Give the backbone structure.
Amino acid sequence: MRAFFHRFSRTPAFAPQPLPSAACEAEASNAFLIAESLPLQPSEEPDDAVLSLILRRWRGWYDAAGGVPHWSAFKPSENTAILPRLVLYDAQPDARFFISLVGEDVRHKMPIAMHKQYLDDVMPAANLSDIRHRLTSALEQKQPNHVCKSMGWKQGHEYQIYQALHLPFIHKGPNPERVLSVMSFNETVRTPLNELDIRKNLR
């Protein structure tokens, strides 16, 4: 299997770190962070064709706008490869995130019913702080961020290696900020990955 990243140096691919959590639940206690960039640097790009494509388009929109692009720049008809993999989060005034759209691939892969729900109402506590931190960072830093890790979202559910790219946008209306997350599910395993497994899967 090819490596999941190119031009990534901030977190070594072969130095996975257990995800910290103040109240780590059983289903996430063996999750591993494989690599991350928070935020992505201009020279960094995910080694996934769909994630790379939307990142390049976002950077083009950013350059054209002179800052964080408006959501109207994203045209569904021009980004059909993205649609099954997306999760769209609307930032709320009370610092919560409302999940307004979930692509079919994400619905199939993740054992959580997220569509038209508040993130903190549906995401297990052991995973909530991690995803909320990445969404908030994308908005505050006004730059995309990227993560690759293995995770099981519910006890007894298969662990998966996946990538997630978080892209900030501005938007009209009462909720002027949103984050487009695009996911890539690379591998499914029946047990949590240890370091040896990760090395094997990243070859």
Summary: The radius of gyration is 16 Å.
